[in-house]
Amino acid sequence: MTKIAIIEDDAVINQMYRMKFEANGFDVQVADNGKTGVEMVKAYAPDIILLDLQMPEMSGDEALKKIRSESWGARIPVIVLTNLGVEESPKILKELGVHSYIVKAELTPSQVVERVKEALGL
After folding, report:
1. Going by C-beta distance under 8 Å and a sequence separation of 6 or more, which residues neighbour residue 119?
2. Which residues pair with 79 in a beta bridge?
3. Among 13, 14, 74, 90, which residue is least crowded by beta carbons within 10 Å?
4. Does pTM top 0.85 for this prediction?
5. Closest C-alpha among 70, 23, 27 to residue 48
6. Which of 28-32, 61-65, 104-108 has the highest mean pLDDT?
7. Contact at 8 Å (CB) between 67 and 34?
8. Which CATH number, 3.40.50.300, 3.40.50.2300, 3.40.50.720, 2.30.30.240, labels domain 3-120?
9. Residue 1 reports pLDDT greater than 70
10. Which sequence spans correspond to the domains of the chain?
């Protein structure tokens, strides 16, 4: 079963994506901030990460820096899922190897699932 980690501080959004991905056959783990997200990714070893940028305790770009700095996180595909426009997002994201960038308000959960499947070649 394909494993996805969702790191997002909005509980409603977390639950919405969890249900949508589980309905599509994914095993899902969620974290509500960057700090617990890094710990979850290390323990869970997901096939892909959906990552919000604006979160308490540790922002998404800070969490991604930590994930990328470890051997266990260097090659996990990451899709940024945020309401910040690309021009507002931290420039470091390109250097950190983000697979793609999704503005939450522009896609339905079904479309996000399709983007994840494309990223994984499913």
Report:
1. 48, 77, 79, 99, 100
2. 50, 100
3. 74
4. yes
5. 27
6. 28-32
7. no
8. 3.40.50.2300
9. yes
10. 3-120
Q: Are 7 and 42 in contact (CB under 8 A)?
A: no
Place of tokens 């501080």: 9
The residues that bridge with 103 in the sheet, in sequence order, are 82
Handedness of CA 52, 63, 28, 11 (dihedral sign): negative
Query: Looking at residue 92, what is its pLDDT?
Result: 65
C-alpha dihedral sign at 103, 105, 106, 111: positive
Residue 96 has pLDDT above 90, yes or no: no
CB 32 within 8 A of CB 9: yes
Query: At residue 12, does pLDDT exceed 90?
Result: yes
d(CA 28, CA 46): 9
- Residue in the structure block whose two tokens are 């420039």: 91
Query: Given its phi and psi angles, is residue 120 left (phi above 0), alpha (psi -120 to 50 degrees) or beta?
Result: alpha
